[in-house]
Amino acid sequence: MIHLEKILTETRNPASLDIDKVSTLALVKIINDEDKKVAFAVEKAATAIAAAIDCIADRLKKGGRLFYIGAGTSGRLGVLDAAECPPTYGTSPELVQGIIAGGTAAMFKAKEGAEDSAALASSDLALENITAHDVIVGLAASGRTPYAIGGLQYAASIGAATISIDCTPDSPL
């Protein structure tokens, strides 16, 4: 049984409990105060972030590719980041790619259930012919999405480098 109340991303934030009852200015300040915490979270993870960047750079220099894999909003953010690389950095569309559970249609309309399939992630990555030279970044805010976990497990089984990004300490991801 999954205890959602124990997963950080599934709990209520005391700072915003009454966000729907405050003035617009107070709402903006609540959101801004929460956004300020991002820099501190990045600071705590700086060593791991640097290691991930070094791993990705090393694999790309050796001819590998970078794949983001995730479901729902996490998957959409991976696809968005991948889509931004060609115009921003002049990369080929093949170098950085995003894979979302449920395929392209899931970018615009939720595809319920796709996030629950680890096997779907394996087959999606197999379709991209990933190799040991590639890097797979699993994205899941909760850190427990079977699609992202399955993708990383498949990638590791063929020797690809794996990186996870989530918002929950000590998550399965």
General shape: globular
- The class by helix and strand makeup works out as alpha/beta
Question: Over the alpha carbons, how many angstroms does the gyration radius reach?
Answer: 17 Å
What ranges have pLDDT less than 50 throughout 5 or more consecutive residues?
none
Q: Enumerate how many helices there are, as a single number.
A: 6
What is the number of strand segments?
4
The biggest beta sheet is recorded as: 4 strands, parallel
In what order do the strands lie side by side in the largest sheet? 2-1-3-4
Mean pLDDT: 91
Sequence of secondary-structure elements: HHHEHEHEHE
Query: What's the end-to-end separation, in Å?
Result: 17 Å
Indicate the percent of residues in helices.
Answer: 40-55%
Strand content: 5-15%
Can you tag this structure with a few keywords?
single chain; 173 residues; alpha/beta; 4 strands
Could you characterize what this model shows?
By secondary structure, the chain is of the alpha/beta class. The chain has helices at residues 24-35, 37-44, 46-61, 72-89, 118-127, 146-157, and strands spanning 66-70, 96-100, 135-139, 161-165. The protein has a 4-stranded parallel β-sheet, with helices on both faces.
